[in-house]
Design goal:
The structure is a homooctamer. By secondary structure, chain A is α/β, with parallel strands linked by helices. Chain A is built from nine helices and eleven strands. In chain A, helix 2 links the parallel strand 3 and strand 4.
Chain lengths: ~220, ~220, ~220, ~220, ~220, ~220, ~220, ~220
Amino acid sequence: MSYVDLGFARVDTNRKQRRGFPEVIFCAGKTPEEVLAISRALLQADGVVLGTRATAAQFEVVHREIPHAKFFERARCLTIEDKPMPKLDGRIAVVCAGTSDLPVAEEAAITLEVFGNNVERICDVGVAGIHRLLVERDRLESCNAVIVVAGMEGALPSAVAGLVSKPIIAVPTSVGYGASFGGIAALLGMLNSCGSGVTVVNIDNGFGAAYAAATINRLAQK
Amino acid sequence: MSYVDLGFARVDTNRKQRRGFPEVIFCAGKTPEEVLAISRALLQADGVVLGTRATAAQFEVVHREIPHAKFFERARCLTIEDKPMPKLDGRIAVVCAGTSDLPVAEEAAITLEVFGNNVERICDVGVAGIHRLLVERDRLESCNAVIVVAGMEGALPSAVAGLVSKPIIAVPTSVGYGASFGGIAALLGMLNSCGSGVTVVNIDNGFGAAYAAATINRLAQK
Amino acid sequence: MSYVDLGFARVDTNRKQRRGFPEVIFCAGKTPEEVLAISRALLQADGVVLGTRATAAQFEVVHREIPHAKFFERARCLTIEDKPMPKLDGRIAVVCAGTSDLPVAEEAAITLEVFGNNVERICDVGVAGIHRLLVERDRLESCNAVIVVAGMEGALPSAVAGLVSKPIIAVPTSVGYGASFGGIAALLGMLNSCGSGVTVVNIDNGFGAAYAAATINRLAQK
Amino acid sequence: MSYVDLGFARVDTNRKQRRGFPEVIFCAGKTPEEVLAISRALLQADGVVLGTRATAAQFEVVHREIPHAKFFERARCLTIEDKPMPKLDGRIAVVCAGTSDLPVAEEAAITLEVFGNNVERICDVGVAGIHRLLVERDRLESCNAVIVVAGMEGALPSAVAGLVSKPIIAVPTSVGYGASFGGIAALLGMLNSCGSGVTVVNIDNGFGAAYAAATINRLAQK
Amino acid sequence: MSYVDLGFARVDTNRKQRRGFPEVIFCAGKTPEEVLAISRALLQADGVVLGTRATAAQFEVVHREIPHAKFFERARCLTIEDKPMPKLDGRIAVVCAGTSDLPVAEEAAITLEVFGNNVERICDVGVAGIHRLLVERDRLESCNAVIVVAGMEGALPSAVAGLVSKPIIAVPTSVGYGASFGGIAALLGMLNSCGSGVTVVNIDNGFGAAYAAATINRLAQK
Amino acid sequence: MSYVDLGFARVDTNRKQRRGFPEVIFCAGKTPEEVLAISRALLQADGVVLGTRATAAQFEVVHREIPHAKFFERARCLTIEDKPMPKLDGRIAVVCAGTSDLPVAEEAAITLEVFGNNVERICDVGVAGIHRLLVERDRLESCNAVIVVAGMEGALPSAVAGLVSKPIIAVPTSVGYGASFGGIAALLGMLNSCGSGVTVVNIDNGFGAAYAAATINRLAQK
Amino acid sequence: MSYVDLGFARVDTNRKQRRGFPEVIFCAGKTPEEVLAISRALLQADGVVLGTRATAAQFEVVHREIPHAKFFERARCLTIEDKPMPKLDGRIAVVCAGTSDLPVAEEAAITLEVFGNNVERICDVGVAGIHRLLVERDRLESCNAVIVVAGMEGALPSAVAGLVSKPIIAVPTSVGYGASFGGIAALLGMLNSCGSGVTVVNIDNGFGAAYAAATINRLAQK
Amino acid sequence: MSYVDLGFARVDTNRKQRRGFPEVIFCAGKTPEEVLAISRALLQADGVVLGTRATAAQFEVVHREIPHAKFFERARCLTIEDKPMPKLDGRIAVVCAGTSDLPVAEEAAITLEVFGNNVERICDVGVAGIHRLLVERDRLESCNAVIVVAGMEGALPSAVAGLVSKPIIAVPTSVGYGASFGGIAALLGMLNSCGSGVTVVNIDNGFGAAYAAATINRLAQK
């Protein structure tokens, strides 16, 4: 049950053993130097670093010291893969309702890929033109799990849930205005989905949905 | 600009002339005797009475004095039609997502019928089994307006809005539990609908939706 | 049931056939290049582009490539009309409570005009000086629908609803401070209007109100 | 700075001297015996008792011991007036939007009368039929203050504020359903009134409005 | 894409084929006769009936006609298993924080069992005595998924998530008082869990969590 | 019942006659040119202009054209007094709980002075050091009305209400952080004040409190 | 790190050693038989039982089997003291704002007494008559901690905090109506108290406040 | 009962005598000059100044005039200690869940130190890796009080409360996103903690927690 004490942080170097994936850095509210120091501790322990909610300024400091670090701007993720996670069979679908939901969908996709999963990206299939979704039914059913990202009224997970038999994880986004209340409307819509078995993560939490889907995909390995 | 002053109420006998439909009694919070007195004033002025949110106890007192009064239990409406409103051409669809939404849908349907409209009732076509809705596309498109009644996540209006070109009025219901918050989830879902042009009324307000639809149907008369 | 797949977006080129109006671009959260690419796909399919919530930066990129594009700053709309929509008979009133509500009212008005409707603009008739509204009664009644835009307590739709027999669509705005809570006070006021038949759209959603009114006006064509 | 200590209550027998009116019993949550004991202490000190939110069960116990106690059922008030408060000149208007608001309006009216004020009751003048209010303009202007009681969207105080020059105190009521949220819609509407100078009390707090109006009326005495 | 139209309901007899599990009856708001009629349609199509949120009165009517129907009082579930679902390998843990959360935990457990899953019940392991949870680490890790049911502050899923590598589905309950706001505190706690990958369902929605876990368990079958 | 129609605004030149005070410009959301144009219309009609929520940029444009316009920075008010309102007898107290509440208190004070009232300013007498308030009891009692401005928990009006017999108008401010929720805590505190007869205006609405107090003071003139 | 597993509950028999006080039974949502079984386990381990939120029906079953069990109706507490906790020096004040807050205050007082503390009860000293509180200053200062129980606006803890130097624990109650929102107003008021160092517990949580105060008092023992 | 009247502020020079600690400056919303003036008044009266929520700009003005003033950037505190408070025996633990919570934890730590307390800082021991906390049990138990600072779901205080017997004060922080709602999730979690006796302060209120803890520590002095 080890950890590395950096004073401002206790890096959980035992996380990978307990949970199957190494600790991930939530970069928001940390100084670039803190992100760098935690990255180094994780690299040494696990060989893989994923930082979410990273800023360009944080990446710049990390990149200066660790040149092979990568930055995914739209996804706001930084990654360092000295010892990449092993590749898993099967695929995870990341579906999003509209173009404006892409940053959250990409955070999910990058997380999945760092964790060794294959990703199917399907974009802009909101219920206002349901035919755009219906043509994708077989592709969705062929995946081991489906992440559905949507803002505004968040109706897409219900529609997807009516079509496929795989686990569905819904991610509400803060896309919208007025009575979307920063994603509350989508969140409540998803929690009350008439599509049985939809589970939900926090608003804009693409990372969390990917983490759950990766955990599921691991179970599906034969 | 006349009215009848009953002391506890000023019955707006000019309403029909200004707005096209007579005043309707919101029975909640009134004594049975008050409902009866207002009914009499409206009968004398307009020949038609519609009471919404009526209880059996209120109806009993009215019925004793005015035996041809009718009560619609599920819709919680009482009606007296000495001079029925003229019949209008065309039809209004009243669509509901689930069986539990029926009381609100029936309030809408009874209101529409008292106001002279033909009603198409379509029940239990929630998005969890979207094929049940898709088969009704032509019937919906053939109506002059579509009222969509749904609780829980309130996704049905968005799905309907993706299919037809007619005005769509969404009614959130208080059906649900937990984070449906008495209909807030459905209300927010409908207000944020990605289906352009959906308009919304208060939670459980079948009457208001019907009033708006009847106003629209009047415009559609050739 | 066609669409054009741009990767980041699936442009619904079948929308106009199903719903009567072409897809409209919700520009918020899109890059200027994405707005341009969607504009081109819509121009080719429908000959008409309307972008709402557009910024000057988005317009600039579009305008460089499509010089006859127009920008309406207060309404935050961009339009391109190669094949303008056919003109409809009758008029739609756009009423606003105060000067500060103008951006939302103009979004409604521009949308209506792109969709072929004639617009009556009536500004600053809030209930604090009800005589300013009462003098407009006949003009309002002569329209096929009335859009009422108001912030703060959102009382204007109730007052209008007491005067005219036409469909009334209320648009709450985020104008106000303190306990207006970004438009919640106006939204709740309108949802609870004692003026029967008032329907409501999202806070600041001038576009949605116009879309609904245009749908209604189409029904009113003889 | 005296008080009477009953153990479960410290009756503020100095209140009348400091504030001009004696302490009033908020009966909710008290046993009938506690209401009786406090009533006796107040009778001895001030000669006048007003209990608000009183139940029939509480009144019964008080009435058995103090036979000249009175109960106002709709207003939920009990009163005992051994030494009635002196009568004031001028009148206070108590205006209510609808019949269902009467319990709150009556609580205000009874409080005003116990405190020595003349009351003008004006009922059911909601904005859905504004002509019913406009005919009362002169009567309202002739009063020293106007209490406006309304539920649902709470628009009536704004309309009244547009017409008269006297202090206006708005009382939101819990009348309504759905998105009225137990009076929140009316409360927010009144707090955001575009009618300058409207002040507001708690939902259903007819007593508080009357107290404030009585304080104002005292200033108006010549 | 079939369904059976009962007028008040369209029973989705195609659900099992699309989603792997037959339609489940949400009994709230339905008459006993409606529950019976839907049960019969589902029995004929799928051979298995699960009704959630069932009352004793609903069960009584069903039981009179279908004597082998069973009722689980604490779980509020009724079941009829003419053709039981096939048994799956592996186990699902249902963990609950306190005794008062048992009704929700039992709804999850009964649903899992009807869907062919083995259930491990672990009760009263809230974080106030974390040693009661720590001793169960191995048992939890040996399951294919973990459902965690908790009210009040809903901290248990975070603690579980720190210990095991399997998918974790959190169910907030309405257990608590005051600022638990009917389960909002637990819901928000779970959505914001620092334990990566926790997914959440609606307040008191034991059924939904079980449905998701059963979908996951199906993937884990070799 | 006159008004001046500027297109973007209908200036209510009849306001002073109906309500006793001229229309006041709510500057938020208006262009400087619009503020200037409305100012000119009001100057011509009433000879007095008060603009609230004014910015330096708005004032600059007005001041260039009307050099005797004044700007009160902390109060965010602009004034032009060609024909000052007549001076009233008596005084109004403006009490504030802390230094940070001064902008709202000053908005109230400037409004009162433009409307002809004498103002007693009493600052920083919050309940954390109640002796600072108790020494002011006589000064407060000598005024015709007391405006109490407070943020955070908003307890000051209750304390003042325990001491004096004059009308008390409470103004919650947005001063605070965290669970003050932009003034909601103070607003709710004031609405639930155990000090009978406290009336409340919107968060940060110093203007509204002053308007009400000025209306009251007019009644107190002998 | 022991516990007793009753199946439906794991009684934490190690609690007293870790935390200084034995586990307390939160009776809400438990059957009488469950309360009895847990009571027996606790009696055997610790010799002292305290049950909060207990009903008469629960007590009756416990009392039948354990005749020396006691029930405190207003406090909703049941106690069994085979081996009473040792008596502590010093006193804890339990102050309440009004008579209606007594049930919560008594829950605090009974808890304190079972835990070995001396209690000073001070009732009905709300800020509307601040002199009733000021006379108690010395008595409050002489205690080791002060629990302040208040509903409505919850201003009393701020006033107490201005007077004494001892730890102050505030308990908001659900006493009030309308915008008290079941205790939210009081809760927010206390969290935003300008009286430095006030800490707060859940609405109506007299037990929690007493637990904290008892923990503090233990520190104060010489 | 003295104070110094600066016009814009009444500095409570009697505070230290009544409450044991001098008045502390809440710098938010004050001009640098006001902070300086209050600092001087407090220096003269008490010899110690603590300013919270201070900005660099405020500090700069103070520092220019009082060169030995100190600024703690992360804690946003300024201090001047001419006559430092006497040192107390014992220690207070300040525990924080994650690195992002450090500003709030530091505000608590600086406040404690200015008030004469020894501080144990323990950082990044969130429940996602509970072993990082368990190793600190003895250190926590050895302190006289424990302040627990956490954002997101705020579960840490419950975990700490399960381990130690000392008073625990929980500070929710605004760290998080989406449904953390600026700290509401953490606040509600802490108010509903199953760890008996946890008391709570406002979101981000490190100062308040420290004040309470210092008050407790004073009681613990032998």
